[in-house]
Amino acid sequence: MSKESVMLxxxxxxxxxxxxxxxxAVFKVKGELRPQDTDLACLAEIVTQDAxxxxxxxxxxxxxxxxxxxxxxxxxxxxxxGEIFASLRVVDAFRTHRGAQAGSxxxxxxxxxxxxxxxxxxxxxxxxxxxxxxxxxx
Amino acid sequence: MVEVKKVGIISCSGEECAGxxxxxxxxxxxxxxxxxxxxxxxxxxxxxxxxxxxRYFARTFPTITxxxxxxxxxxxxxxxxxxxxxxxxxxxxxxDSESALAAPFSQRQLNGERExxxxxxxxxxxxxxxEIIGKPAAxxxxxxxxxxxxxxxx
Lengths: 138, 154
Fold this sequence. Notes:
heterodimer; A: alpha/beta; B: alpha/beta; Rossmann fold; four-stranded parallel sheet; globular; DGC domain (chain B); DGC (chain B)
């Protein structure tokens, strides 16, 4: 079992609803579902690539949550040498919600919150796998 | 030919403290409601994950960064990876460190006090935009996009 808590890094994209859905899903995992097993790190800090953040990421299993295909969270975590246990995509969470009006990058609708909550459940399961020494898909 | 000048806004959107959420929502307010059509944004991590067009953002637009805390990640990353910023604001200076460094919040937890904080930061950001391209005449202010049902603009 992994002793370290799992790092959660959402892209928090500011241009589309997907970024907000991922951000809110991660906050739900940290705030409610797996508070003791997870930690948050600012993606903006990771982008600065300074030594402090690289040291903090070193050896920690990380779950990234990306809104769009540019995969900013995953790419930036890899660039600082982070160990990605799982890389989740908000767009995949939409597959079971075709035609959903999820809201905007400013605010989610009830559809948006539902998708975010389902994604949070998926993230929580990945956290459990990581803590139990699972292989991950990163 | 009329040159349409826009100001770039880059928010840290930090996930570790309240200042990140405040910076994000203030930026969204300016983009969507206060100065729509006069402002543009980009996701900060795209400077590394994106292409040349994204990396040239701060050389294309006069850019304002809005950071949640004194680490000023948005400003530092923009200057390192994209170009000089025109103005750098921080929530911790516009409000106070205690508010900026409070626990991060879900938008489910938005309340009147938080909305006041966001409005204050948004006003400073709007003022910074106007300093760069001038305050728009009332007739030139674009009507904000009508949000879909169930969506409330801050």
